[in-house]
UniProtKB/TrEMBL annotation, chain A:
Stretches assigned to the ABC transporter domain: 2-228
Species lineage: Bacteria, Bacillati, Bacillota, Bacilli, Bacillales
Top-level division of the source organism's lineage: Bacteria
Keyword Transmembrane helix belongs to the record: no
The UniProt record lists the keyword ATP-binding: yes
UniProt keywords, alphabetically: ATP-binding, Cell cycle, Cell division, Cell membrane, Membrane, Nucleotide-binding
Subunit structure: Homodimer. Forms a membrane-associated complex with FtsX.
Main localisation: membrane
Homology family: Belongs to the ABC transporter superfamily.
Function: Part of the ABC transporter FtsEX involved in cellular division.
Protein name, as recorded: Cell division ATP-binding protein FtsE
InterPro entries the UniProt entry points to: AAA+_ATPase, ABC_transporter-like_ATP-bd, ABC_transporter-like_CS, ABC_transpr_LolD-like, Cell_div_FtsE, P-loop_NTPase
TrEMBL record, chain B:
PANTHER family in alphabetical order: CELL DIVISION PROTEIN FTSX
Name of the protein described by the UniProt record: Cell division protein FtsX
Organism per entry: Sporosarcina ureae
Function: Part of the ABC transporter FtsEX involved in asymmetric cellular division facilitating the initiation of sporulation.
Key words, A-Z: Cell cycle, Cell division, Cell membrane, Membrane, Transmembrane, Transmembrane helix
BP GO terms, sorted: cell division
Lineage: Bacteria, Bacillati, Bacillota, Bacilli, Bacillales
UniProt xrefs under Pfam families: FtsX, FtsX_ECD
Length: 228, 294
């Protein structure tokens, strides 16, 4: 599903966030991306949905090469990828329902389909009673659930999560993880950058460790590693 | 784009206006205040321009025929003057009428001249373009039966110069004010959009195309312009109509008439609305474009 070949990324300030990365991620996988802060995890993830473009190298998403993709084609790529952030990134002036529906409105879905799909994902994330609330009226965990609901309502092939439990307490983090497991069980590929040792160690999946812009470890069912 | 998407954009733009209450208020107020200023200024400048036009059009050439010229010769002169290029209108005044006019102006002592009128017949000539007054006067002065030509030589040229400068200064001020208005309003709109930058980033993130992000913002610009223009348009209409009724009722002077509210107010309101909507859309477009590119 995702193939990176010799990906190198240097920012204008001279920081090298990716120093020749090779990786391949198959459809349906659940992958943790671990590593210390500033190691290049976020850049690694951002390049997958073309928020960042590598300085050199190639990135394929379902056989489409992303580095040479035209700016106007980027929205169509993003409709196939759901993204979840540590700070949720919800539209503050839209209700829970509207935030989720927005991802379907951009692809010009009919109102009846939007209603049906939004209701389904709200059930999946357990927020059916809060549809009319605004993000600032929700707890962190609830906001993250809205964010996840928005990322999957389009039925994307890939969900990318950048430290989705970073702002949440352990109990809420586990609830969020359960939702991700459920989504993964339905065949969606999940790539999650995390600092949460507890989760990585107790919910084993493939672990890619990044340090200094390089993949230093790639294990099928790895642990967070004590060295980090 | 599907029609339901267009409806969605319109609905969303209104929703966003109400949910961003204070920002909407700030932008609408900026439009209102600036348009009021522009409106008042345009009313003043256009009426001064009208006054200048009236003054210019009031300039005429008085052609005095040879006092000894016969009726046929005066008719010949009249024909010649009428055929002079650039002449718009010629009024004939007989020597008798001329003397009556002088008696009215200077008193009955001049009535003595009734027995032996020394004046010649007069022609009052207006140029189609007041600026050609001097050249027409020169031309007429060469005709055989012309005794004298008067048009306020020197003074007319000065007057035209003053009016020309006045007009240019007025036009310059209106343009400067419009430019300032565009800057002020679009800056206010830009500030409100900057505050919503994260929204634009999120929209892009979930796969919204540039136009899908841009259209609701531009529609908001249209509504901001329209809402902001309502008050200035209403106030200008009410106050100008009242001023016109008050002023015209009292004014005897032929030179200074206010512009007729119909069609002036219609044109003014249309201009204000156009400026407001244009600036609203332009401000939104430029601000969103900046964030879409980044």
């Amino acid at each position: 599903m995702i193939v990176m070949k010799n990906v190198y990324k240097k920012y204008p300030n001279g920081v090298v966030a990716s120093n020749g990365i090779h990786v391949e991620i198959e459809k349906g996988e659940f992958v943790y991306v671990v590593g210390p802060s500033g190691a290049g995890k976020s850049t690694f993830i951002k390049m997958m949905y073309r928020e960042e473009v590598p300085s050199s190298g190639l990135i394929y998403f379902n056989n489409t090469e992303l580095t040479k993709m035209h700016r106007k084609d980027v929205p169509y790529l993003r409709r196939q990828i759901g993204v979840v952030f540590q700070d949720f990134k919800l539209l503050p002036k839209l209700t829970v329902y509207e935030n989720i529906a927005y991802a379907l409105e951009v692809i010009e879905e009919s109102p009846s389909v939007i209603r049906q799909k939004v209701t389904e994902v709200l059930k999946l994330v357990g927020l059916t009673r809060k549809t009319r609330m605004f993000p600032n009226e929700l707890s962190g965990g609830e906001q993250q659930r809205v964010s996840i609901a928005r990322s999957i309502v389009n039925q994307p092939k890939l969900v990318i999560a950048d430290e989705p439990t970073g702002n949440l307490d352990p109990e809420t983090s586990w609830e969020i993880m359960k939702i991700f497991e459920r989504i993964n069980a339905q065949g969606t590929t999940i790539i999650m950058a995390t600092h949460n040792k507890d989760i990585v160690d107790n919910q084993p999946h493939r672990v890619i460790q990044i340090e200094g812009g390089l993949i230093t470890r790639d294990e099928h069912e790895g642990e967070y590693s004590n060295e980090i | 784009m599907k029609s339901r998407t267009v409806r969605r954009h319109i609905r969303e733009s209104f929703k966003s206006l109400s949910r961003n209450g204070w920002m909407t208020f700030a932008s609408v107020s900026a439009v209102t205040v600036t348009l009021l200023l522009i409106g008042v200024f345009i009313v003043i400048m256009m009426n001064l321009n009208q006054l200048a036009d009236n003054i210019e059009n009031d300039v005429e050439i008085k052609v005095v025929a040879e006092p000894g010229a016969s009726e046929v010769e005066v008719q010949e002169l009249l024909k010649e003057v009428k055929e002079t290029p650039g002449v718009a209108e010629v009024k004939y005044s007989s020597r008798k009428q001329e003397l009556e006019r002088m008696i009215q102006s200077f008193g009955d002592e001049l009535a003595l001249y009734k027995q032996d009128n020394p004046l010649g017949d007069a022609l009052y000539v207006k140029a189609d373009d007041p600026k050609n007054t001097a050249s027409i006067a020169n031309e007429i002065s060469t005709y055989t039966y012309t005794f004298d030509v008067e048009y306020g030589e020197g003074k007319v040229e000065k007057l035209f110069n003053v009016l020309k400068i006045g007009r240019n200064v007025g036009l310059g001020l209106i343009l400067a004010l419009l430019f300032t208005a565009m800057f002020l309003i679009s800056n206010t709109i830009r500030l409100t959009i900057v505050a919503r930058r994260t929204e634009i980033d999120i929209m892009k993130l979930v796969g919204a195309t540039d136009s899908f992000v841009r259209i609701p913002f531009m529609l908001e610009g249209v509504w901001l312009g329209i809402f902001g223009a309502v008050l200035p348009m209403t106030l200008m209409t009410i106050f100008y109509s009242k001023l016109y009724d008050f002023w015209e009722g009292r004014l005897q002077n032929q030179l200074f008439h206010l512009l007729d509210p119909n069609p002036f107010l219609l044109q003014l309101n249309f201009l204000l609305l156009f400026v407001a909507v244009f600036i609203g859309v332009w401000g939104s477009f430029m601000s969103v474009r900046k964030f879409l590119k980044s």
